[in-house]
Amino acid sequence: MQESGNPCIFIPYQRDLAMKTLCNPGMLLLLIMLTNTGIMSQQPAQDVFTVIHNRKSVRQYADKPVENEKVETLLKAAMAAPTARNIQPWLFYVITSRQVLDQLAADLPYAKMLAHAPMAIVVAGDTHKGNPNQEQKLNWALDCSAATQNLLLAAEALGLGAVWTGVFPYSQRVEAVSQALELPAHIIPLNVIPVGYPASDEQPKDKWDPEKIRWID
Ligand SMILES: Cc1cc2nc3c(=O)[nH]c(=O)nc-3n(C[C@H](O)[C@H](O)[C@H](O)COP(=O)(O)O)c2cc1C
C-alpha cells in the first residue's frame, strides 16, 4: 500500500486500495502478520538526511521499556557498518538488568544517566578477530565506532533517544565495564549506549562549518 508524504493522509485512490486490502482475507492476514512481526509498528521511514541531521545525544528517558523488535533493528543497523577487511570484530551486550545498569552508572563518571535508562547497549571489540598486526591492532575501535554511529542513527529513526558514553581508551572505565559484564581480557568495551524513549526535548546541534573544508583541486 502506497502512502502519501504524511503517513496519516491517504488520497482517495489509496483509500479505495486500503478498503480493498482490508476486505481481502489474504491481504488482511499479511497485514496482521506484518503488524505482529513489528515491521508495521515501527516508525514510518524517514529520509536518511533527515535522520542524520536530527540525531542528537539524549540523556533523559521516559519510564518505558524499549520493544525487543526495536532493539533488534538497532543491532541490525549496527552490524551493517563497514569494517576493515570485513572482519566484523564486534560484540553487542544488551543490558536490561537494573542491577547492572545501576552498577555501570555508579562506576562511570560521565554515564550517570544509566541509572534512569531502561536499557543500554555496550559495543565491544574482539581483539582476537582477524589476527591483526601492530599497525592494524586498533582497527576494532574504528569498526566498532562505525557500528555505533549506525546504531545511533537507527535509534533516531525509531524515535528513541541514545547517547554514546565513552569507555575505551580510558583504562579505569574499560576495567569497570569489563568487571560488570565479566568480559574476558580480549574483549574491550568501546562505549556504553543508554537507550530509551526521550523524556527531554533535545535539539540537534548545527555543526556545519564551511571553514573546516579544504578543497584540493
Ligand atoms: C567518543 C565519544 C565519547 C563520548 N562520551 C560521552 C560521555 O562519556 N558522556 C556523555 O554524556 N556524552 C558523551 N559523548 C557524547 C558527546 O558529548 C556528544 O556527541 C557531543 O556533545 C555532541 O552532541 P550531539 O551528540 O548531540 O551532536 C561522547 C561522544 C563520543 C563520540
Report on the structure:
The protein is an alpha+beta fold and 217 residues long. It folds into two domains: 7-41, no CATH class; 48-196, NADH Oxidase. It contains seven helices and five strands. It has helices spanning 12-23, 25-37, 48-54, 68-79, 98-107, 139-157, 171-181, and strands at residues 90-95, 119-126, 161-162, 165-166, 187-196. Bound molecules: flavin mononucleotide. Flavin mononucleotide is lined by residues 56-57, 59, 110-111, 163-166, 205.
Radius of gyration: 21 Å
Q: How confident overall, as mean pLDDT?
A: 87
Encode the helix/strand succession as letters: HHHHEHEHEEHE
What is the β-strand count? Answer: 5
State the major sheet.
Answer: 5 strands, antiparallel
Helix content: 25-40%
Low-confidence stretches: 1-15, 30-41
Annotated CATH homologous superfamily of the largest domain = NADH Oxidase
Give the strand content: 5-15%
CATH topology of the largest domain: NADH Oxidase
What is the CA–CA distance across the termini?
Answer: 47 Å
Gross morphology is globular
Proper CATH architecture of the largest domain: 3-Layer(aba) Sandwich
Q: At the first level of CATH, what is the class of the largest domain? A: Alpha Beta
Tell me the count of domains: 2
Helix-strand category: alpha+beta
Number of helices: 7
**Bound small molecules, deduplicated:** flavin mononucleotide
